[in-house]
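Working notes for the structural subgroup meeting. M.R. asked for a predicted model of this chain before we commit to crystallization trials. I am recording the input and output together here so anyone reviewing the notebook later can reproduce the run.

Input as submitted:
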Amino acid sequence: MMKDMDQEQKQQMPPTAQDNAEAASANGTAAVDACAASEGAAGQTATATEDLESLRQKAAKADEYYDRLLRLAADFDNFKKRAARERQEAIKFANAGLLEKLLPVMDHFEMALAAFAQPANGQTASVQSLHAGITMVHQQLRNLLLEAGLEEIDALGKPFDPALHEAVAQETTADAPEGQVVKQLRKGYRLKERLLRPASVVVAAPPAPATSAA
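Returned structure, recorded in token form:
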């Protein structure tokens, strides 16, 4: 009976200072733990946000590098195509320089043959033999140039074409339509589709209209 009374009295006794301190300490520890947990969560959120932003920046950089790579690949492909075209052009027109240098030789041969063709009395056998020799050499040279790809521009009787002809004079005539080539003073040549030299021509001009007498 006495023991029960003692326990009841103890339970009814007010808390001591020590009890209050212990309770305060426990509450403080819990608050610190809660604060630390809150700060930890905030720190993790900030870190995750920074990581996400870093990933976005890296993805944007990767897209930029990929676009550059695509442009470089396209530029390189265009370069290869251009180089192939230029190589084909170089092969195609490799003889252009040589043929251009030989054109004056052809001109001189043709002038010599034209001179022989003029009527002359008393031509000796040696002159005739020289004419035959020049004709043969001219024909051989002409055939060689044609085999190399040289093409003669046939201008006489054709409409004047500024892409192929060079008009050096006009001739008034009623025998040909205006703009037609009536004389070819010097042959023109081209190598495949490339013009080496235009034909020097005389172009027809219409006669002046007749004036009526007053």
